[in-house]
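Task card 7
Instruction: Convert sequence to structure tokens.
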Amino acid sequence: MDQARTCIKCKHTMIPQLVQKVEVDVCPNCGGLWLDKDEIRELSKKSDKDLSDLRKILQQSEKKGFKPPTTVKEPCPACSGKLSVAVLGPIFVEHCTSCDGLYLDKGEMDETIKILKMSGDKIATIVALAKTVVTSGTI
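Output:
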């Protein structure tokens, strides 16, 4: 297991959670979710029932009305690389240009999985989609 990661939005220590054999990092404070490369693809293969425990964990974050900042100058929590912003349908996700990790704000996991499932074979990974729609450099 890697060193503990710090949430890029609220600076709390993220907690590793094992979800159907996929380890994700969850912020217990703001409900943010860090996914290493290809973990979003693995989660998208799981059933709604398989993801219900993760949804409960994300919903139980302490700051129910937490509004993430619109800009983040923090480095990637996994590799200290540069983060960029990508637009995926109606949501903005933070994407590491070095390790291809993704940060999702509270409530964005289901929408991101839905977009990935709709893209089917046309797009190899959510990261490939994110790279094609980067809207700014460092956030």
